[in-house]
Amino acid sequence: MSRNLLIVGAGIGQVFLLKKAKALGHKVTVLTLPGDYPCIDMADDVIYCDVFDRDKAVAEAKARGIDAVVSDQNDLMNPTVAYIAEKLGLPGNSFAQVQCYCNKIAFRNNCDKLGIPAPRHVAVSDPDFDFATFDAPFPWIVKPADSQSSVGVKRVDSLEQLRPALKVAIEKSFTNEAIVEEFFVGKEIVCEGFIESGKFRLLAFADRKYFELGDLQIPSQTLFPSRVDPEILARVVECETKMAALVDPNFAIVHAEYLVNEATGEFRVVESALRGGGVYISSHLVPLATGIDVDDLLLKKALGEPVDVESAFAARKDRAAGYVCFLLGEGAVESVSGIEELKSLAFVNAAFLDDMAPGARIEKLAHKGSRKGPILVSAPNRDELDRYVELVQKSLKIIVRGPSGNASGAIWE
Question: I need a labelling partner for 172 at 20 to 30 A (CA). Which of 1, 39, 338, 406 fits?
């Protein structure tokens, strides 16, 4: 039966949900601000609305007879999805449930309640906050309480660096709140799962690599499966299971990030969010690595259709998949080679390189949006995946001419 589905957000993270819904014969409306977003032209209808003007969003959805609402791969959209679902009595999670995951302060408070290992932290709404009682050595990490994509996040090594960073973090927060945390040294892993009626089911773990850029933290690769000690991974699953049981979401993809010190076996949760991982993790990499189309589960749940989640997980496979990104220095692209060769490789599932052409302007590195790609790769196992990643890096050649006339190539790690 055709349904009237609302997708909150019109960016790249919603494209594959929209395509699935359209292929099933549903009418799709997207809610978004005006802009160059791919889903606007793909949708049957558009509601132009600020995602934070939630009462207007509810009124517009009600006027259009919307009977299902969903979003993925974006922290900022999911509170609005929950708000609309709750107000209109549609399948979904409550606004309070989503805030327990999306708001970093609320999430940390629940970690403390459950005994989930988290960095020492303090909530701050005033840049002149007195940190005399914050018992954690420098460096510290300063974050907005409710932003995404590393916007407003900064490592600080002294009180002199703290005040400017705190001011920016509070300004970037929609609730004008920030959180300051101790810095924990460890390897980052991501944990992908699916929650149904408060029960957490593990999809897969991945290892994450970063570009070496000083205090600017930008992921370069996310590779499934993880090589971390399975005993540590089992303890992480216990943490996600406890959080899901406490908050008790009706259904959701869950994307979590942890830092692991393999030498000591200690770990700390960075965040856990009720949405799929970005950079095509939920839409592409999880299905490639596990055989489970988790976006399909999410969409059917949102539409109120019967879903046998248990059977879907019983049929999971163990393969390998990952994304590879690169950076380019500031300037203009002078030459590009290897794109067609790269796309022809059997293990390359997708290569998002349409913006790579001579003359393209490359802005100064600033945040996750500065990354180029990604290139999605899959393999029978992790050893083969690592080898394929090296082949990808050797295949693509891009030269950028900087403002001072210097030439530079792609930065992979």
Answer: 39
- On whether both 219 and 247 belong to a single domain, the answer is yes
Long-range contacts of 229-234, Cβ-Cβ distance < 8 Å, separation of 24 or more: 229/262, 229/265, 231/265, 232/260, 232/262, 232/265, 232/267, 233/189, 233/191, 233/205
How many CB atoms are closer than 10 A to CB 355?
Answer: 11
Residue 111 and residue 105: Cα distance in Å, rounded?
A: 10
Enter the tokens of residue 301: 């749940």
Give the per-residue pLDDT at 215: 65
Domain range for residue 48?
Answer: 4-90
Cα distance between residue 55 and residue 65, in whole Å: 15
**Which residues, at least 6 apart from 131, have a Cβ–Cβ distance to it below 8 Å?**
122, 159, 162, 180
Radius of gyration of the chain (CA): 21
| CATH number of the domain bearing residue 190 | 3.30.470.20
Q: What is the pLDDT of residues 308-337, one digit of tens each?
A: 999 999 999 999 999 999 999 999 999 999
Q: Is 63 helix (H, G, I), strand (E, B) or coil?
A: helix
168 and 194 both lie in a single domain: no
What number of CA atoms fall less than 13 Å from residue 290's CA on the CB side? 29
Per-residue pLDDT at 149:
63
Number of domains composing the chain: 4
> What's the pLDDT score for residue 97?
97
176 lies in the same domain as 214: no
Percent of the chain whose pLDDT exceeds 90 = 89
| Residues comprising the chain, all counted | 413
Using alpha carbons, select from 113, 126, 31 the residue that is nearest to residue 71.
31
Q: What is the pTM of this model?
A: 0.93
State the sign of the Cα–Cα–Cα–Cα dihedral 398, 222, 116, 91: positive
Q: Are residues 20 and 143 in the same domain?
A: no
